[in-house]
Amino acid sequence: MSEEIxxxxxxxxxxxxxxxxxxxxxxxxxxxxxxxxxxxxxxxxCKNVDELIEKIKEDKIFFESFLKEITVNxxxxxxxxxxxxxxxxxxxxxxxTHQNIRIWHAACSSGEExxxxxxxxxxxxLLDRTQIIATDINQDVISIAKKGIYAIRNMELNQSxxxxxxxxxxxxxxxxxxxxxxxxxxxxxxxxNFRTHDLVLGSSFSKFDLILCRNVLIYFNMTLQxxxxxxxxxxxxxxxxxxVGSKETIAWxxxxxxxxxxxxxxxxxxxxxx
Length: 274
Ligand SMILES: C[S@@+](CC[C@H](N)C(=O)[O-])C[C@H]1O[C@@H](n2cnc3c(N)ncnc32)[C@H](O)[C@@H]1O
Prior knowledge:
Elements: H1 7-21, H2 30-43, H3 49-58, H4 60-70, H5 81-95, E1 101-106, H6 112-123, E2 130-136, H7 139-147, E3 149-151, H8 155-165, E4 175-178, E5 181-184, E6 192-196, E7 208-213, H9 222-234, E8 236-244, E9 259-263, E10 268-271
Parallel strand pairs: 1-2, 1-7, 2-6, 7-8
Antiparallel strand pairs: 3-5, 4-5, 8-10, 9-10
The structure holds S-adenosylmethionine (SAM).
């Protein structure tokens, strides 16, 4: 049963999470955050918000499950195939002129986007000289990404995306099937460093040639979008690239004057100023 909740209750939940675990959801877009909280109350059979807050504070394992439900982890391999074609045809050839390539997948969820990138790089003969950092706030999805084992029933959509991307072979060239699961080829992630990272805290790693942060900004309010895009701007070399999701834009962010639009259709921006 889901409960209609008010802003005060949302603030109390946000405060409990911040005080206990130092995750700050205060700048998540309120409408979708409220919808997720309503879902959480129903999924975990909480009678009301007070019960939810008690559980969050007292049970760390419950909190991990809460975190997984509160964030939307939906992802696909080669999601938006035209985006991946654009990377192959126009973005990666520019980056490939560098001796080493550095890519950050910010908020990579269960890793499908990372395996897509590794396959694309392999098909372009760039995988061996690329370093990838793949991060997400959620430890559970990072563990799935590291294992690279996906239910075979989910591979149908991934395969159809790969066909629309017009890859060199078949997606099945990159996984073996075992007992209803697709086990991704481990060599694809030899140069991938998976780790947890909270974009809200705003710490950076180093500089990158390409940052992908797709289908994440949509869950943040303008204040947080601004901060995160500034973090990305500081984490990019001059002339390198930032890609966001098909329904997202950085056009209204304060750092926009540091970027030019490289592809309006695929939401790819190029950093033009330090
Ligand atoms: C919808 S998925 C997007 C996955 C992938 N980028 C794609 O486009 O298919 C959104 C991801 O953002 C992550 N996320 C949400 N808030 C975050 C934060 N503050 N820091 C890092 N990751 C976050 C979630 O855990 C989730 O895995």
